[in-house]
């Protein structure tokens, strides 16, 4: 039965596989890689149906900051061709450029947007060109949603909140709303949004608690403003300063009958972090010491998703709105500090609900949500792995799920973000997205990913219902949540009719189907089958496109991480080399220091004052002269005795002289002894010094050993580096294994094709069974998608009826 479908699937999957391997011709078949022409073709394809509306996606390019200009950022990466087309040129050294050099991806991409706002465009023009009309629709009772998307530091918060001097979309929207309300403010706070789309009338106690809570919240904001040194008037805030900024908008025109209508405005501020919802207006004191409590997302009886126990605050003017925003921002940054995360890792959502009150009744309620999406970068350059990657995955999953909105079955429940705004995508309001980018070459790769994901968002189609639910009034419920008004202005019957419409239609069709001839039933089944196949084919193409985008992104991520790892290894090696060198230097210094210390000690030991030394020198000289004199005399006396008796008197005189000299001899001998002793002492000193030299030599050899050890530790580190390189090689092998896994999948597909071929022949063998299988298939596929429409549901009934009639009346 599904042979055609199967073959299409095979072809499409084959083309995806080829694309993942960087096959050039196949790349042209997919819009994301072939650039603008294909994206535009997708757009024109889906805008044909009158009941469908393309999500409006705007691009805002942030100007370079002074630091970026001073840092010499490459300024040619992003070129705005016209007001709708932007071209991205990969800078040298970027991962995209490296990939394109390896044949994966391109070095130049073109993207188109509903409108592009260049760096010179100010906040007012951005507001006028994007959400202004949505705000006016909101005042007229329609729901609106705006996303601000982009990498960290691209200007998302600037676009939504802005600054005191340059207010963003939120303060400007509030300004328009309050100007529109003027004096028609419903100041009693007894009507409050309830669940997804109802309004609750508060009793006395509830009203009292509500007022107390609001006072406490505003007090907290005042405390915060005093703490941060701002004046109580809050004039520096972007919201309240708007009225002082000289920007003024025309008051939205009100019809004469609107003049007696009163308005009541409630706001909530919450964030989604890692698929957990947190209330930003919940007092910090509740969770400062404990884990921060997360809130549940539930569905009300109308199928509208809402955040359970979310705090709604009734505000009367821009100043109060500013205070609420301030408390939320403070709680957000406090929470992010506690989690040691940057606030840019969560989606923050500011929602405004406007109640139109006419006398005792609530005529309608509309909702405006401004969503500052988390920084879309897949990975922080320094902390690429673990939780960060998981978070990044969650952020982009939300967008990819939005991308699936075009298909008949949309898994809204896969992400909190899409689940909460499911109503808007199913036609209960308008949505738009502002993609923020900066022009820095250093963040080019992340910016390219943002553009690619925004191309997915471009394909999101809002199906506008022929009857908008928001045109019906909300249910007014009491404390117990039961409806208060059943008749009168609120046309509850209309809501009931709307909700039971499907059942009524089914009942009618059942009656018709039972009297239809069997041939006609078969022909309906045939046409249904064709439609089902066409629908499946469309879904498959969409699925493949999304898979391809994910595949591309993952491949690029892999390459980036590989590059980062080799960089880490190189850095590690460099740092070890440096460490080793430093250790060498340390040892050298220690050695020098030690030698110096020893020398100093020796000098101290051997130190003789100069006077003493001079005296000793003089004495030595004197002794030497005397010694030589004595020796001379001795020689002379010896030669005299050898001359004999012929010279006796002389001998006598000489003996006499010698005898006279005897006391001098004793003194000399004494000196000689002393000199000998000194000589011995000097020799001892020499021995000691010799020993010291030996010790020093042994110390040097010890130091050599230590150096040897350091060398060995260096070798160990080298071995570590080697292990890291091995791991890298292992990862490469894993990548190859994945690729071979892909090949296996291709083989599986081939076997599937065979099975399909067999299946296609099966109906001829057993004519009665396929019909049953077909009916079952149609039932199954028609029962799942909500948006398949009344036609599919009618057919489901018809198939069921025909099946039962076939059972009753065998052919
Ligand atoms: N259009 C603009 N004109 C002038 N300055 C801007 C513009 N957009 C952003 N900036 C400035 O750039 C800086 C970063 O902007 P912002 O904080 O809004 O980025 P972000 O994308 O919200 O970052 P994060 O994801 O970290 O919250 C801020 O100092 C902001 O004032």
UniProtKB/TrEMBL annotation:
* Chain intervals for the UniProt region annotation (Disordered): 213-242, 631-662, 759-811
**Residue stretches of biased makeup (Polar residues):** 648-660
Give the record's GO CC terms: microtubule; spindle
GO terms assigned for molecular function: ATP binding; cytoskeletal motor activity
Report the domain of life of the source organism.
Eukaryota
Where in or outside the cell is it found? Cytoplasm, Cytoskeleton, Spindle
Task: Report biased composition (Basic and acidic residues) as residue ranges.
Answer: 213-227
Database matches in CDD domains: KISc_KIF23_like (cd01368)
Q: Which keywords label this protein?
A: ATP-binding, Coiled coil, Cytoplasm, Cytoskeleton, Microtubule, Motor protein, Nucleotide-binding, Phosphoprotein
Cite the Pfam families for this sequence: Kinesin
Quick check: keyword ATP-binding in the entry? Answer: yes
Chain positions recorded as ATP binding sites: 150-157
Residue span, Kinesin motor domain: 54-460
State the family it belongs to: Belongs to the TRAFAC class myosin-kinesin ATPase superfamily. Kinesin family.
> What is the recorded name of this protein?
Kinesin-like protein
Q: State the organism of origin.
A: Coilia grayii (Gray's grenadier anchovy)
């Amino acid at each position: 039965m599904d042979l055609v479908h199967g073959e299409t699937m095979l072809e499409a999957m084959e083309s995806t596989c080829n694309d993942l391997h960087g096959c050039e011709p196949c790349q042209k078949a997919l819009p994301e890689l072939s650039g603008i022409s294909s994206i535009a073709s997708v757009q024109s394809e889906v805008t044909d149906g009158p009941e469908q509306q393309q999500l409006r996606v705007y691009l805002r390019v942030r100007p370079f900051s002074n630091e970026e200009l001073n840092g010499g950022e490459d300024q040619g990466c992003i070129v705005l061709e016209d007001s709708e087309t932007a071209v991205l040129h990969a800078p040298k050294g970027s991962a995209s450029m490296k990939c394109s050099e390896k044949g994966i991806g391109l070095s130049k991409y073109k993207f188109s947007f509903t409108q592009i706002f260049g760096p010179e465009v100010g906040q007012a023009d951005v507001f006028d060109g994007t959400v202004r009309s949505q705000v006016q629709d909101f005042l007229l009772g329609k729901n609106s949603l705006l996303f601000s998307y982009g990498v960290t530091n691209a200007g998302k918060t600037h676009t939504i909140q802005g600054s005191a001097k340059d207010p963003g979309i939120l303060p400007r929207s509030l300004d328009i709303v309050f100007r529109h309300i003027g004096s028609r403010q419903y100041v009693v706070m007894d009507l409050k949004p309830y669940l997804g789309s109802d309004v609750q009338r508060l009793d006395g106690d509830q009203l009292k608690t509500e007022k107390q809570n609001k006072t406490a919240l505003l007090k907290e904001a005042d405390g915060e403003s005093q703490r941060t040194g701002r004046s109580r008037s809050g004039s520096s805030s972007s919201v309240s300063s708007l009225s002082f900024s000289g920007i003024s908008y025309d008051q939205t025109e009100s019809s004469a009958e609107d003049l007696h209508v009163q308005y009541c405005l409630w706001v909530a501020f919450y964030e989604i972090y890692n698929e957990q919802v947190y209330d930003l207006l919940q007092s910090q004191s509740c969770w400062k010491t404990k884990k921060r409590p997360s809130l549940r997302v539930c569905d009300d009886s109308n199928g509208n998703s809402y955040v359970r126990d979310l705090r709604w605050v009734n505000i009367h003017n821009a100043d109060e709105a500013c205070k609420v925003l301030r408390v939320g921002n403070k709680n957000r940054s406090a929470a992010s500090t506690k989690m040691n995360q940057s606030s840019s890792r969560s989606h923050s959502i500011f929602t405004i609900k406007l109640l139109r009150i006419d006398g005792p009744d609530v005529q309608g309620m509309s909702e405006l949500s401004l969503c500052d999406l988390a920084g879309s970068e897949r990975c922080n350059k320094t902390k690429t792995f673990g939780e960060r990657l998981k978070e990044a995955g969650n952020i982009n999953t939300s967008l990819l799920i939005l991308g699936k909105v075009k298909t008949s079955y949309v898994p809204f429940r896969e992400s909190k973000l899409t689940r909460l705004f499911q109503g808007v995508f199913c036609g209960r309001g308008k949505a738009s997205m502002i993609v923020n980018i900066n022009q820095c070459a250093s963040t080019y790769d992340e910016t390219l990913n943002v553009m690619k994901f925004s191309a997915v968002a471009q394909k999101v189609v809002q199906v506008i219902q022929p009857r908008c639910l928001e045109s019906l009034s909300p249910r007014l419920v009491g404390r117990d949540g039961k409806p208060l008004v059943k008749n009168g202005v609120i046309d509850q019957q209309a809501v009931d009719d709307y909700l039971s419409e499907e059942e009524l239609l089914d009942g009618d069709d059942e009656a018709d189907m039972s009297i239809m001839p069997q041939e006609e039933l078969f022909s309906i089944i045939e046409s249904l089958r064709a439609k089902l196949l066409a629908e499946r084919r469309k879904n498959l193409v969409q699925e493949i496109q999304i898979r391809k985008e994910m595949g591309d992104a993952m491949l690029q991520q892999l390459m980036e991480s590989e590059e980062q790892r080799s960089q880490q290894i190189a850095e590690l090696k460099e740092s070890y080399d440096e460490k080793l060198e430093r250790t060498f230097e340390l040892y050298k210094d220690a050695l020098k220091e030690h030698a110096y210390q020893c020398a100093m000690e020796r000098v101290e030991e051997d130190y003789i004052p100069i006077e003493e030394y001079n005296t000793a020198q003089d004495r030595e000289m004197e002794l030497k002269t005397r010694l030589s004199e004595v020796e001379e005399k001795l020689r002379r006396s010896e030669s005299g005795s050898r001359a004999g008796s012929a010279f006796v008197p002389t001998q006598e005189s000489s003996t006499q002289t010698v005898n006279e000299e005897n006391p001098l001899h004793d003194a000399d001998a004494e000196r000689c002894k002393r000199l000998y002793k000194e000589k011995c002492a000097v020799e001892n000193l020499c021995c000691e010094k010799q020993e010291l030299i030996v010790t020093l030599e042994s110390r040097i050899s010890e130091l050599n050993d230590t150096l040897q050890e350091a060398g060995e530790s260096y070798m160990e580190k080298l071995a570590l580096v080697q292990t890291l390189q091995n791991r890298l090689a292992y990862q490469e092998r894993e990548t190859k294994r994945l690729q071979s896994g892909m090949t296996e999948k291709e083989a599986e597909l081939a076997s599937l094709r065979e099975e399909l071929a067999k299946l296609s022949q099966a109906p001829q063998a057993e004519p009665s069974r396929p019909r049953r299988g077909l009916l079952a298939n149609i039932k199954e596929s028609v029962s799942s998608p909500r948006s398949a429409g009344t036609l599919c549901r009618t057919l489901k009934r018809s198939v069921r009826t025909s099946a039962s009639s076939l059972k009753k009346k065998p052919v």
